[in-house]
Amino acid sequence: MRKTTALRAAAAATAALLTATACSSQRGQDAQDTAAGGACKGQQTTGITDKTIKLGGIYPLSGPASAYGTISKGVAAYFKYVNGKGGIDGRKVQFIVRDDGYQPPKAVEEARRLVEQEKVFAVFQTLGTPSTAAVWDYLNKQKVPQPFVATGASAWGTDDKHPWTVGWQPNYVAEARVYAKFLKDERHKAKVAVLYQNDDFGKDLLGGFKKAVAGSGIKVVAEESYEVTDPSVSAQMASLARSKANVLLDVTTPKFGSQALAADAKNTKWNPLHIVNNVSSSAAVLQPVGFKNVQGVVSATYFKDPADPHWADDPEMKTYTDALHKYAPDADPANQFNAYGWAVASSLHKALDTMKCPTREGLRDAVRNLKDVKVGMLLPGVTMSTGHDDAFPLETMQLMRFKGERWQLFGKPVDTRKEFGPLTK
Q1: Confidence class of residue 37 from pLDDT cuts 50, 70 and 90?
Q2: pTM, whole model, 2 decimals?
Q3: What's the CATH number for 5-170+337-394?
Q4: N or C: more exposed end of the chain, with fewer CB within 10 A?
């Protein structure tokens, strides 16, 4: 991704500052390094003690992607729940949330604040491809873990120059592969129109889809992009409708996802199969459009839908619902973004449990050495695995179709590693 001069200047300035303070910080932690054991001696213990662990998260609590902000409530509720049970390996979690408004320069400011002022152990969860890309150079230079970023860009798993950063959710190429397989199986001569966000997020999923359908009878016949600063996508939707495609691939963030669904519903002369990407599949996106207007829309997921009565008696879902009522009473348990937050926080818990050293280096290594780890909020058949040449924890998804007032799963989970092979660097 092309970096701006401002971002490079910010990274350089903060690197100089941290170099000046590193020696004094390390001297104050020598005792803990020694206690950690010979193999761990000399590794970074900033932000972690025998009793506490400090984590920071950067979310768009405001701005065009503010619908995602509630994810932080799901994360915070999980950590409060765990703290009530004694913490993670006896350590109480402090989770500090910062707002970047979905603006990369602001994300850089907040990352610096978390590292230099708050002295967090890790920056857990930076949300969005633009914001994550803006800060990963800085965090990797400072050797601060950036685990389970809230974006599915394939760069997080194919770039070997940023070992301190790792994704979590299925990457956008893997998701695109699931939709491609669905169309190959069900509509092998589909004509596809694509609406996509004009950044690495949108281009990643679109590129993955084109590659996955190459050589088949499926053709992309029209493409329209939009900017996150655009007021609406009505003009783009009108243009796509003129293509007379029988499938619409909707690669959008929530605000624009709602607009695209509404525009599709209003155009009675165009009735394509509407596939909306996972990040805009929340009921909070669909509800403003009216459930009657989104019947039959298709998407894919990898974690349990809290609005689906199928999971009403599921132990993890019960724990999640009770904890959210207790620790985040203003957050709706049925909102999938809150469930996402719970799922990713519990995934980090699993990774922290596997650390060989209670250090930043220990976490860096743990998240890249996961072996079929089960997480309660993930769908059956979906587990976390990473390795030396595989930094994508999740690459299995299951299709779902909107019927009535909720999503309904169909088909079997698709392991894209097995169906299409691993992504290459």
Answers
A1: low
A2: 0.85
A3: 3.40.50.2300
A4: C
